[in-house]
Amino acid sequence: MNADKIEYFKQRLLEDLKRLTQQLEDLGRKDNERPGHVEVEYPESGSNSEDDNAAEVTQYADSLSLEARLASELKDTEDALKAIENGNYGSCKYCKKEIDEKRLEARPASSSCINCKKILTQEM
What we know:
The chain is mostly helical and about 120 residues long. Helices cover about 60% and strands about 5% of the residues.
């Protein structure tokens, strides 16, 4: 991959890093024990009705799920930026072949080629 393409993907990753960091900050307080994570607070409506309690539990579960997904995306983005620094961005971490640019265009933080990803997720 040429230097212009790498710079293009680096800028996209930096934008993603900023967006993901902001989304995590909006979701909760920084978790000092788990870097890249936030502590999601349990929503309290002040009511003790079963409907309100169920809504609180659902909202909390949704927030926990979102936090986990955002933290995972943030880690992948940080890892991709490190790969750029190390000079191995765009290479599959499993088979070491070049990752197709279309895949990187769709998801710049990708660390595996389509074939290895299919094997890992047992889609073949």
